[in-house]
Amino acid sequence: MTGFFRAASLAAVACLTAGAGASVAAPKTVAIEPGRAAVLQALTDCRKLTESAPRLACFDKATEALDVAESQGDVVVMDREQVKAVKRQAFGFNLPTLHIFDRNNKPEERIDHLVLDLDGAHRNGEGRWVFVATDGAVWRQTDSTEFGDEPHKGSKLLVKNGVLGSFFCKLDGQPQVRCQRVS
């Protein structure tokens, strides 16, 4: 049984993101660590029990609650490779691998814009601006609108969703231009 408890704990300790309204029947917890999902804390609290029968009952109840929370999208458990894959993808791309975050997703949790700090900007061969953010994201202007003030390192770039998968970039409060995520 010790292997079961260890496996259950390790599976739950994988990268965890909790929904704000996660309400699943689970064993009561003494204290919840900041940022830790309540269902994970309930599972780890079972280890504090010393008697076998109550400990097993606690684990059974807590693992069921974690399983229900995960299946309803209130908690997302990912392994390191999945997290790496998600980090390689970002706003501005078609991200079919992010479907795991869509279960019971609330409209207010949807990302529809980003504000980026520019590391630099340059014109491409077509004379359009290419914006390089400090986080490594690269956006390219797709229309021919000119800026009053040219982009530079330290400029703020607001990127927001348009319609039908398009995006708009607004530089330092100037009129917006159409843009596309390059990398």
What attributes characterize this protein structure?
6-stranded antiparallel barrel; disordered N terminus; 26% helix; 2 domains; alpha+beta; two-stranded antiparallel ribbon; 183 residues
Description:
The chain has two domains: 2-78, no CATH class; 112-181. The N and C termini lie far apart (48 Å). The chain is 26% helix and 24% strand. It contains four helices and eight strands, in the order αβααβαββββββ. With 183 residues, the chain is of the alpha+beta class. The strands form two sheets. A six-stranded antiparallel β-barrel has the order 3-4-5-8-7-6.
The secondary structure category is alpha+beta
What summary fits the major beta sheet? 6 strands, antiparallel, barrel
User: What's the helix count?
Assistant: 4
Low-confidence segments:
1-34, 99-105
Relative helix content? 25-40%
Kindly estimate the percentage of residues that lie in beta strands according to DSSP: 15-25%
